[in-house]
Amino acid sequence: MVIEYIRYTVPADRADEFEQAYKTASSVLDGDPHCLAYEIARGVEEPEHYTARIEWDSVEGHEQGFRRSRRFGEFFAAVKPFFSGIDEMKHYDVRFGSR
After folding, report:
1. In what order do the strands lie in the sheet with 2-9?
2. Strands (DSSP E) found in the chain
3. Of 19, 32, 48, 95, which shows the fewest CB atoms inside 10 Å?
4. CB-based burial of residue 16 (10 Å sphere; 0-12 exposed, 13-18 middle, 19+ buried)?
């Protein structure tokens, strides 16, 4: 499993639009076999900052499976208006933690 973190800066006047875009895109993530879980979080101290945290079965599952799937276009269309606000988009290996 790998975690993809996407950090965004979203102007306050577009916050509702951003959240709705990810709610729309979430139906694609829910149906993808490579996506294990996801969450969208908004900054408390800096509410213009959002983080999308997506658990994938593997980097290959994300990049070769999900991104090449026919439904990826639906996901991309929903979130594309916010791509200019991406500050980081990277995969991370989990080393330890708790649940």
Report:
1. 35-42, 49-56, 2-9, 86-93
2. 2-9, 35-42, 49-56, 86-93
3. 95
4. exposed
* Residue 11 DSSP label: -
* Range 2-93: architecture per CATH: 2-Layer Sandwich (3.30)
* pLDDT in 10s for each residue of the chain, 99 residues: 999 999 999 999 999 999 999 999 999 999 999 999 999 999 999 999 999 999 999 999 999 999 999 999 999 999 999 999 999 999 999 999 987
For the stretch 35-55, pLDDT in tens is: 999 999 999 999 999 999 999
DSSP H/E element including 19: helix 15-31
Rg (CA), the chain: 13
Query: Phi, psi (5° rounding) for residue 57?
Result: -65, -30
Where does residue 97 fall: left (phi above 0), alpha (psi -120 to 50 degrees), or beta otherwise? left
